[in-house]
Each structure stands twice: as structure tokens, then as C-alpha cells.
Amino acid sequence: MRAARAGRAGRLWCAAATLALALSGCGGGDSGSAPTGGIGGTPLPSPTPPPAGRLFADPAMESLSVGEVQQIMAQAIGEAQARGLPSTIAVTDRVGNVLGVFAMTGAPASTTVSRTTIGGTAAAGSEVGLQGAAVPSTTTAIAKAVTGAYLSSSGNAFSTRTASQIVQQHFPPAPNTAGLESGPLFGVQFSQLPCSDLNTRFTGGAGASAFIGPKRSPLGLAADPGGFPIYKNGVVVGGIGVSGDGDYGFDTNTIDVDADDEEAIALAGIQGFAPPVDITADRIPVDGTSLRFSDMGVGDLGPLQTSFGAVNGPAGSLVAVGGYTSGAIIAGTAYGSEASGIRQSTAAEFVSRDAYVLTNGAGAGRFPIRAGTDGASVSTPLTAAESRAILEDAFTILSRSRAQIRRPLDSRMQATISLVDTHGQVLGIVRSPDGPIFGTDVSLQKARTAAFFSNAAAASQLLGSAAGAPYVQRVRNFLGDPNALTGTVAFADRSGGNLSRPYFPDGQVGTAPGPLSVMQTSTFSPFAVGLQTDLVAGNIVTHLGFVQSLNADTPQQCSDVPDVVAGQKRIANGIQIFPGSVPVYRGSELVGGIGVSGDGIDQDDMVSFLGLHNAGARLGGIGNAPAAIRADRIVINVGGQGVRLRYVNCPFAPFLDDPAQNVCEGL
């Protein structure tokens, strides 16, 4: 754990043992402010107006040059030298291409995943999940850099410290917040996985597909301070990650301010490339609490070293990392270009000129809109026209909605929407222009998770998995339903998320963990959350062996859940356990799932639920699950009181163009 600075913990927090996540009157004060001298950012440029006939402006096509990557690395290396902490430093572009990794002489070759748990520290040999694993320091640095790049946009700049705050069992995490609900993005750390079938892989070759993103991360998203986004002219162009202290952990106490060497080194790296000050996380409140960006400030830094030639050799060297970089510095790709793998859609691909799609680098969409592939499992699969209508209506809701985590205020929501059939096959993915990259993989996880747990085959699929089998009986015992997970209940991701928390109801201490969480609350950590971790831990371990040239890489199919057909898994990029998805039904028959991610979990819920409803109202035949089978009909006895599962939660007055309130009520 990092040492807290004395005399800087005078922040006001509201401590209330309640089930409500809303912390109104419980402001974060200056909890995310840089301690001295800010972060070195610039004022936010005036928003670029959208072109005629458009609702969104396209982000400027900025990218990092080789010289700029060298400068960023030199600045970080110089600060590491000044602090006496030899470190591994990684830089990526916005879509996750690793632009270079530098290992300083004396930097630890491996880093230990934190053993910190709710109950203290797990003893060696008693850890669950990834706790206590020794992993290459190159992989932790890359994961931090990817996190800074993927969580950020032109409207919000989030760091790995921000990520730490929003993925723990209570929000905000602190000794006096027990009883508050879990972080809004609880579980997002297990996305961008090395086994994901959506995220692309470094091949070391050339050609049109060499640099398309989004690229995978070796450890998913990081919660260990020391990772920041990199900006150029107000546009996010990448991320930096620093690993030097031998610990890959998270910040359990957001009341104090940490003197964190890794964070200072990364902050030095982004000088001249820092985000605009108006969009950093500490300017963005969530449910009344200001988020955190950095506990270190420019005033904590020594003189900047800007010459890469002065440190390359004397201080260490660039290194190759299997599956990520050949050992040279390369230039970044400009997000929005064909080469980046994400670009504006054509008229033939999607009706809205505001939509972006994933592409193969040579002009062809990776996930074109199509009909369901699951004719062997459902009586009438989704047609291509129905798939298109669902995505169109969901994108319309997204385009009208007020953003939750973007600046300036009253910006439009930006996110990614994914649609799948009951086999988990992608029927289309569309994005708004500046949605955070992390939401691409996460929206697909959400869509697949809703379809998976609502499927009649869910129990049999989990029973066919060594990792998943123990959870089936736990769910059945917990719900008091011997037939649970056989398609009789429609589960949204908010519902499954309720069952995945280490406390049930969410946040309330002294109760049993949810059946999809860890067996004992005291063993929980962001690296051991239960089923979500267990399904993919084997893939991550195999991949880390590949990075060290010990074995072949993990397949591009997550989990040991049996294939639904040869070579296809229903949850091929893992499951997700925070809100933003609903299953798709034709009458009473499950036919797919829709997931949304990028700009506030209530907004994500609304876009999936209301978009699907509107498509069904327009076409007929398809829509949300019948109300009688939705998970919010389940009431669980907890200490003699009934606790109802949740299905979706829509914002109160969400639209920029309509004063309508309670827009999901009665649907």
C-alpha cells in the first residue's frame, strides 16, 4: 500500500450505511484535485460544432509520432531516476497499439498481484482469483497504459486511479463507506481480456490489418495508480503505464492522498501531453462524489528530462513483449482512420452518418449488421431487418441522451452498442464518434451476458465448465429455485450484477455474498470477484505464459464453457457484471441480447431497454422480455426481509431535446 501524505486528508465524506448509491450532499470536495501545481493540462478547447446534418463532431485525427513517444518516455524515465525507482514504462495509442516499452536497469522483472482483500491480506497459498500471482512487469505497465487510453475521450480523462475508485465493493472506497453500493463500473477490470474474440492481437507483421484496434490488454483494465491518458491538442491519442514498485494493486482509501512514485513518473511522462484540465476525472461527479484523477501534481515533479538519447542505454533499453511489441518505438495510429480499425460508417453500413463501426483496415466492416445464426436453437431467429432496427433505434436514443460523465455539461451521450443472437454471435456493433474505447468490448460482454443467463441452456453450459459448475447450485439455493438458469427468468446485466456483489443487497455489510460472487466475503478483491474471474483466470494465466515464451497463446475464445457449435462460445470475451444490457425476445422466446457501454450505467440501461422497445413498437414481433418473467419479479429473503432483484434503471429526465421524465416506466 502507498504511504499517505500527512496533513492532506482533510476531506469531507458522508458516511451512511444505506443501500442507496446516491450520495447527494456527499460531494467529493477536492478529493481528486492534484496536490500541487495541477496536472499540467490546458483549458478545454471550445467544442467543435458538428457538421451540417450531424449531431456529433468527429474527433480530430491526431496521433503520436515516434519523437513524441520518445519524449514521453524520456520524461518518465527522468522522473524515475530522480525518485530512485527503476521502472518499466509502456506507451500505447488510443486503440491500444503498444508504441514502445522501456525497461530501466534494475526494474523488477515481475510484479505481484495484490493479496489485499476485504478481510485484510490473503496468506500465500490461500488466494483466490488472480491474487498473489507473479506477472511480468511489462504486462502491468501495458495494462495501465491501455486503461488510461481506453477509459478516456475528448469529454472525459480517466486514470487508473479513477478506475480503482469505481470497481471496488463500496463507492467511494474508504474505511467509513461500508454500507454503500459497489462502484458503478464494478467488474469492468475483467474486460479487454487477452482471450477476447473482439479485441485484436499484435502480429508483428505489416499490412492493412497490422494496427487495427481495439487491441487486447494482457491483464484487462488496471486499478493500480500509475496509468494516465495522453492527449494532443485536446484529443486523446494514447496512454502511459508505469510499473516499478513490484505491486499491482488498488487504492482502498480515497480519503487520504497517496505519495505514489509510479503515479508521479507517469505524470512526468504526460507533461506537454496532459488532458485539458476541465475534463479530468476530478471535475466529474458521480452520484454526488467527485472522481479521482491523480494524487500527484506537477509541483511534485523534478526537472523534466526530454532527451530520449540521454537515457536510452544509460538508463535501460526498449524491450520486446511477446504479443505486444517487437522492441522498437513506432508511431501511433489516428483514431477514426481506416488504419485504426474504427471509422465513420458508410451509408450502406448504417443509416446515421454519426455512427462509427469497426473495420478490418482494408475498408470492410468487421461486424456488419446481419441476421441471427441460431436457427438450430430458436424457432425464428432475428432477421437482418430486425437487427438493423434494434441498432438504429438504440442509436437514436443514445444520440438524444444527456451524457453523465462528459464535459462540458449537457454534452450528448457517447457509447458503443452491440447486438448478439442466442449463440453469442455478433449481429452488429455501432458506436458514437467519441465513445470511450473500453465500451466496445464491454458492450459486447454485456449483450452476451444478458443472452447467456436468460438462456434455457445457461445451467447446462455452466455445469459443463469446471470453473462455472459450482455456481449453478449456489444460484439455485440462493434464489430458492431448483430450476434457476433454465430460461424461465430474463436477466439483464443489472440483475446478474446484483447476484455478483460480495454483499447482498449490494453494499450492505454483514450479509451473505451474492451467489455469483466469491464464496466468502473476506476473500473478495478486484482480482477475485467470483464467477466473472473464475471463467477467464485460466485464459489469463495461459496468456502470461505465452508472453514469457513458455507456451502457446490462449485461444481467441474466453472460458472453458462448452462451445455452442464447433469453434463458437456464447461468452467468447467473458461476462460483464455491471448494468447496461437486456435480453431480446420474440414473444416469450429469447432471440438475442443488446448491450451498451460508455457513458453512465443508467444511460446504458436506458439505451438498451428503450431502444429495443422502440424497435419492437416500430416493427412488431420483437421487444423486451415479457414483464412476468423479468428478474425484478424475484424477491429474495434476506434476514426476514424481501429484497427484489433489479432489471433496468433509467435516468429521470434523460433527453436533451425532450423534457420527458420516467421514460421507461410501464414498458
UniProtKB/TrEMBL annotation:
Keywords: Signal
Cited SUPFAM superfamilies: GlcG-like (SSF143744)
Gene3D superfamilies given in the database record: Haem-degrading domain (3.30.450.150)
Domain of life where this protein originates: Bacteria
Residues making up the signal peptide according to the UniProt record: 1-22
Keyword Signal: yes
Protein name: Heme-binding protein
